[in-house]
């Protein structure tokens, strides 16, 4: 294999595109395939269809090394390592929908030179099932590697280039391809964990499920803090200094969202259930998360009484800052609940407005935070965009009908906001 082998990427969604741009930055020719013709056209014009810090610049800088195709043939012709980055959304049963993964497996030619490198998040055991499928189709010469991704939206480029670890799962029959995938990450200088395929698959699901558990745990602590008068931010600080606990993912709020945690927690719970094990803890993690999104409504009622006819401003809509991703965003449930209670909802998000419009109906989208706050009976911070912490509180107060702020992400300095004459409600403070 040449020094910098060409790479194939199948599926240029968020994971595929970030991986493609970063591999190109590391000096590889990257051949990408997506079945969405419009997306491929957009990328060929040099435009990036998602918002991810640094991605547009990286795609532009490496334009000459990035090739976007709707056909699989040129990708297979140029790349030996074929990264599968198609989406695996949840089905109604909570299982991961692997139809797109299998569509790729069906389409790939039998070849001893090529390896399927699975980056899509799949249940443990999928690699084994794919090997069976390959045998059925007389494609046993295709090698199989699991290489789960741990990127966070909003810092994906940074995460790719500075990983905590890379996991490469390959069974005994696929050692050459495991070595080749591990070698790609060598320039990044991070630990590479080599495992069998099923363990690599489980590392991914277990990591996300553990992080989601950490969030639901601190959210429940926050709810107890509200009852007993403790401040969850101080509690999290004191807990997090214990290296066995660690400070990250202890921010209480109105629940986790996004395309990963809800899907992966449910997939792991379902995987356990399908094999006869009831994963009690994850069942509670999901339940706590759902209830957490709804707590804001009671906080508003505490100060406003009925919400019928009240104007509520939502600041932030994306599932977290620095992304326009609206998948499983708490704002969707919240807006619907507020409207169900008879409130009028106005909202502002610096980048997610277009995507939000597809999911949130009956809500007026505003161009600035102050427009959303105009005449509002209360404001809810749904996403912790840094610009909300910079708002001029005097101006905010002048715009609002009544100065009530529910800070769903504990973004603001409670004392400062109260001193400015607001009624302030955080989460667990
Ligand atoms: C998550 C994982 O963090 C990544 O490691 C993983 O690669 C990715 O899923 C994936 O499987 O693809 P992501 O969904 O982009 O990444 O976002 P996170 O930053 O992890 O946040 C997830 C949710 O948890 C957000 O809604 C965030 O607001 C919430 N959160 C996070 C909290 O409520 N509290 C916290 O302390 C941290």
Instruction: Give the oligomeric state.
Output: single chain
CATH class of the largest domain: Alpha Beta
Helix content: 40-55%
Q: Give the low-confidence spans.
A: none
Number of domains: 2
Per-chain topology:
Layout: E1 7-10, H1 14-25, E2 30-33, H2 37-44, H3 55-61, E3 66-69, H4 73-78, E4 81-84, H5 99-107, E5 115-118, H6 126-136, E6 143-146, H7 156-161, E7 166-170, H8 175-184, E8 192-195, H9 197-228, H10 232-240, H11 261-274, H12 280-304, E9 311-315, H13 330-340, E10 344-348, H14 353-359, E11 363-365, H15 369-373, E12 378-381, H16 386-389, H17 393-399, E13 404-407, H18 414-419, E14 423-425
Parallel strand pairs: 1-2, 1-4, 2-3, 4-5, 5-6, 7-8, 9-10, 9-12, 10-11, 12-13, 13-14
Antiparallel strand pairs: 6-7
The chain binds uridine-5'-diphosphate-glucuronic acid.
């Amino acid at each position: 294999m040449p020094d910098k082998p060409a790479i194939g990427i199948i599926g240029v969604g968020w994971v595929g595109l970030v991986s493609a741009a970063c591999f190109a930055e590391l000096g590889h020719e990257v051949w990408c395939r997506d079945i969405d013709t419009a997306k491929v056209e957009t990328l060929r014009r040099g435009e990036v269809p998602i918002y991810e810090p640094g991605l547009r610049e990286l795609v532009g800088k490496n334009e000459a090394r990035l090739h976007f195709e709707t056909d699989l043939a040129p990708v297979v012709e140029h790349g030996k390592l074929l990264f599968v980055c198609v989406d695996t959304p949840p089905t109604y049963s909570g299982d991961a929908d692997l139809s797109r993964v299998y569509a790729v497996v069906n389409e790939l030619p039998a070849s001893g030179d090529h390896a399927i490198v699975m980056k899509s998040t799949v249940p443990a055991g999928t690699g084994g099932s794919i090997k069976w499928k390959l045998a059925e189709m007389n494609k046993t010469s295709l090698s199989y590697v699991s290489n789960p991704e741990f990127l966070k939206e909003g810092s994906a480029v940074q995460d790719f280039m500075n990983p905590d670890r890379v996991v490469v799962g390959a069974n005994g029959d696929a050692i050459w391809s495991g070595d080749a995938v591990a070698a790609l990450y060598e320039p990044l200088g991070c630990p590479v964990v080599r495992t069998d395929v099923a363990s690599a698959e489980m590392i991914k699901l277990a990591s996300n499920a553990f992080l989601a558990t950490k969030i639901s745990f601190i959210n429940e602590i926050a709810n107890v803090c509200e009852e007993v008068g403790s401040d969850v931010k101080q509690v999290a600080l004191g807990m997090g200094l214990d290296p066995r606990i660690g400070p990250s993912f202890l921010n209480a709020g109105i629940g986790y969202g996004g395309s990963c945690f809800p899907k992966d927690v449910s997939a792991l719970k379902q995987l356990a259930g399908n094999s006869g094990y009831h994963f009690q803890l994850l069942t509670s993690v999901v339940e706590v998360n759902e209830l957490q999104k709804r707590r804001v409504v009671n906080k508003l009622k505490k100060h406003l009484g009925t919400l019928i006819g009240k104007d509520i401003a939502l600041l932030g809509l994306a599932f977290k800052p620095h992304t326009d991703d609206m998948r499983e965003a708490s704002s969707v449930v919240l807006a619907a609940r507020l409207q169900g209670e008879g409130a009028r909802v106005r909202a502002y998000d610096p980048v997610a407005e277009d995507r939000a419009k597809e999911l949130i109906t009956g809500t007026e989208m505003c161009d600035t935070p102050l427009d959303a706050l105009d005449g509002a009976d209360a404001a809810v911070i749904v996403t912790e965009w840094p610009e909300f912490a910079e708002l001029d509180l005097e101006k905010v107060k002048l715009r609002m009908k009544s100065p009530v702020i529910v800070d769903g992400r504990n973004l603001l300095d409670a004392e400062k906001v109260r001193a400015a004459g607001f009624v302030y409600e955080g989460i667990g403070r």
